[in-house]
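Course assignment 3, question 2. Fill in each field.
Student: A.L.
Task: Predict the tertiary structure for the chain below.
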Amino acid sequence: MARADPPARVRRDARGLGATGSGVRQRRLDTTRSLFLVAFLGSLAFLGWGVLDRSSNQVAILVAGLLILSLTLASLAVAGAIVAYRAGRAGDGARAFWAALLGGLAGLAAWGCLAAAAVLALLYA
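Answer field:
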């Protein structure tokens, strides 16, 4: 039984490149990336609202915004660690390096937001 060749847009050569020969892969916006994008932009919008709000609840809104941003960045750091591990196991050293670096920076930013939220909460009490 003969196998049919895949369409030209899916056909790969021995190097794993597309039919056109370009090594550029198109990144899809999957569910996880869109969830992270919505969470990150939502937490930044909530934090921005806390900065612009001049009521008596401003510090409480800022603390909540920083906590939400901290949780978002911590989840990005965990996702970066998972991507780095999987890329390292697959032998893709460059992708593992960049995922580990960006995930580590996201982790540091998460701890910074958590520290700022703790300081503001102590000042608010």
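Instructor remarks: The first helix runs from residue 31 to 52. The mean pLDDT is 85.
Grade: pending
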